[in-house]
Amino acid sequence: MAEQSALKVGVYVDVANISQCGGRGMRFDVLRDFASRGAVEPIRLNAYVTFDARRADNDGDFRRLQMNFHSTLRDFGYKVIVKEVKWYQDESGAPYGKANADLDMAVDALLQSENLDRVLLATGDGDFVQVVRALQNKGCRVEVVAFDSVSGELKREADHFICGHLIPNLLPINDGGVAWGAEGSRVRGVCYSFLHEKMFGFLKFLKEIRTGLWNTDTRRKDSPYGSAFVHGSELRGFDLTLLPSREYVFEFSLSTTDKGLQARDIVLVSSPASARRLEVHPPSLNHPDQGGATASRGAAAGPVGSGVAT
Questions:
Q1: pLDDT digits (tens, 9 = 90+) for 63-101
Q2: Where do you find CATH 2.40.50.140 in the chain?
Q3: What confidence tens digit (pLDDT) does each residue in 117-160 have?
Q4: Which residues of 8-23 are buried (b: 16+ CB within 10 A; e: fewer)?
Q5: Could you give the CA distance from residue 203 to residue 224 in angstroms, rounded to a whole number?
Q6: Engineering a disulfide at 148: which of 22, 27, 86, 279 sits with its beta carbon 3.0 to 4.6 angstroms away?
Q7: Domain 186-285 has CATH 2.40.50.140
């Protein structure tokens, strides 16, 4: 039996899709760590980005920001594949830009899969369903990471889908300097159990990035997941009849009681489009704005204000 460290992993990131669908500010170094669990180093790390050369020629700040973003990706070991924006005119003569890296990403993943055991696709685009099937037919295990507006068929076809909101530190979080999963920290999770007659349930969260994601039973000591008690009164403004559900991602603070961890100061951060929102909590509990590439060790996902259709 092969050692886990011998796994050959490839990562393919549709940067525009991730940025436009809830993943703006994603930390590419954390994504690399997540993809590499069980492997020494990923074999391939490809990031597909769009670039508006016309705007860059006229906007020095925009150009510098994009170049810095691409350089940061390369620092993390990603090969940056640039898809240049093409400009057209609509029927009224108004200009619009279009760039689509889907075909490049699909072809690269399929060709390079010959040398891979596991492929991680960072995209929520349903156009990749057939790509997932083709990769699986080549013997690859296919994982999908995405945030919001994710194709349901893509989720079902993947060998493993995980919402990016749930991966520790993949998106910056206003944690007050407390490590994810520790008492007093802010984490994100889903409600996997709710007893309506008693008005309480439990939220499950990933404690850390490591192998064994299949081990979702939080009662097991070797599970990478933890759970926190939640009382219905903490979910103000939310339709409790929708629970339990994996479709709603909550951010919350962890506090310790004599009965274990409890979720406090809960905010709904991701849901189906028709969902009702929780009431607004104090600004200190909301996400900081993560526009553009960050100066920290996390490069933000995607160009800023390109206004380009993908």
A1: 999 999 999 999 999 999 998 877 666 777 676 556 678
A2: 186-285
A3: 999 999 999 999 999 999 999 999 999 999 999 999 999 999 99
A4: bbbbbbbbbbbbbbbb
A5: 14
A6: 22
A7: yes
